[in-house]
Design goal:
Belongs to the universal ribosomal protein uS9 family. With 130 residues, this protein is of the alpha+beta class. The protein has helices at residues 34-37, 41-54, 71-89, 93-99, and strands at 4-11, 14-21, 28-29, 32-33, 61-67.
């Protein structure tokens, strides 16, 4: 059996592949420390939320590969993946994480461009005045 738990998180077009290890250490994203990849206090609060809710901040660490979307979409994908991985570790965490909405995959994505709409997804062609 592998010594890690694998989970996947998604948001917009971002996909985060999580390997969760049951030992303390630094969490790495795309070969960078998580604090360097997602700088700032707001981002730190977001990516630490699943660990804090489950009270396992210093008991686990993860290596994460994330691709697609922008930084915010990637951050949400990482949080979603970490939450899914923690539920695989201990099913009792599921109710705690579900209350905070961390296990719900956000379905909002970019609206596709439609033909005959003047280049944008919601723009309509100008109607003649007379």
């Amino acid at each position: 059996m592998a010594n890690f738990i694998y989970a996947r998180g998604r948001r917009k077009t971002a996909v985060a592949r999580i390997r969760l290890f049951k030992k303390p250490g630094d969490t790495i994203i795309n070969n960078l420390p998580i604090a360097k990849y997602f700088p700032g206090a707001i981002a730190k609060k977001m990516y630490e939320e699943p660990w804090i809710i489950c009270n396992v901040l210093d008991k686990y660490h993860a290596t994460i590969k994330v691709v697609g979307s922008g930084k915010y979409g990637q951050l949400d994908a990482v949080v979603h993946g970490l939450s899914r991985a923690l539920t695989l570790v201990n099913p009792a965490f599921r109710s705690l994480l579900k209350k905070r909405g961390l296990l719900t995959r956000d379905p909002r994505t970019r609206q596709r461009r439609m033909i005959g709409m003047g280049g944008k997804s919601r723009r309509q062609k100008q109607s003649p005045k007379r």
